[in-house]
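Handout, page 2. Input:
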Amino acid sequence: MNAMFKTAALSAVAVACLVGAGVASAQIVRGGGATLPEPLYDALLPSGIGNTNYSYTGTGSGAGKSAFLNNNATGFKNESIAGTPAWLPADSVHFAGSDSTLTSTEYNTYKTAHIESSPGVPVTGAAAWGPLIQIPAVGAAVLIPYKSSTASVISSLNLPDAKMCAVFSKSVGGRTWGELLGTADTTPIQVVYRNETSGTTELLARYLLAACPGSGFVFSNNFRTVVTGALPAGTPLPRLSTAPADPAADAIWKFVDGNGGMAAEFGTAGRIGYLSPDPAFNPTNATKVATVNGFAPLPASIKTALASQVLPLGGASTDPLAWVPAYVKPPVSGTGASYPIFGTTNLLLNQCYKDPAITTKVRNFLARLYVPSPLVASHGFAALPDGTGAAGANANWKSAIQTTFLTTTAALGIGNPNVCNTVGRPVTN
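Output:
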């Protein structure tokens, strides 16, 4: 879905909640980052330009994390999309969306700057922002859209792990459409990739590392970094968008910005890419979306796969890095076999905000996100495991998040007065 800034009306329930925020409700909750969940967030809250309650700007997961961790709203300016907010350096960032998980280095840097300058020594004053929260929002499959070459018109495409490895490494078996399909077609496969740092790229990288051991793929949210070590000698590298045109590279690679840019590229024959859920690409439409190991990217299978991961309860609950379900590649057949390219899109938040109106609005957004909503399924996402199914109550991620973060009196509850009485993300920088 392209990063359009459409306005969605608040539900009657959300409006009633916001009325209680009083005069301070004019304060905008600024967020941005991952483009993967942007259409869903636009539907869940009045997102976009000119709204008085919330704004979410799709800039890519890397930019979103950076803007949040540095509290720099200018990072939400997306130069490739006209009309994105011209936030000023004094404007605070209140949340971010990222499919790319927080690293231990990123968290430790935040902790030293805003929680404890050293073990047992709390940060005080304006820099004391309080605990950081990272939680999964919804599960998502990474789709593999394609349009075959004009010489190889096909109505469906199944890519076993070995073919996926070959296509994205430009190795024998995945360089041309003939190699892929077992024909004489010499048309190169042009791989469409995300130019910016992207959480969707990171989810693809997790799969490639698991599916193609020893192939040289690297875990990263930068596509060039992911594939460079896997390419045969002499293979042109994916080029930077700022680099001059390179006919040899451009015949086999095509860069785009955002999920919207990716979705727009499959009117041209000969291409394969990777895409977050998008209304134009129904996961069961075999003419547009490939299966992998014979499985289509259905939300139900993603929810089941996520339910197998252990909840971070007890002492582990205080670690933001533990709240993102680990990726475990499903088997290709037998018990547990399912679509293998998936993950969660996540939210970065603070437990404490200096402005109580911001606290109320952040809680309202989360409360609406974590109740059963047809919006999650209608946008192609998988709701978090809710305790139903084979994994049972031990996999109720939704309930655990509500209890841990949306109960004000809980130790990690957003707005807990015992924690937030002297700390919080600033109103302005």
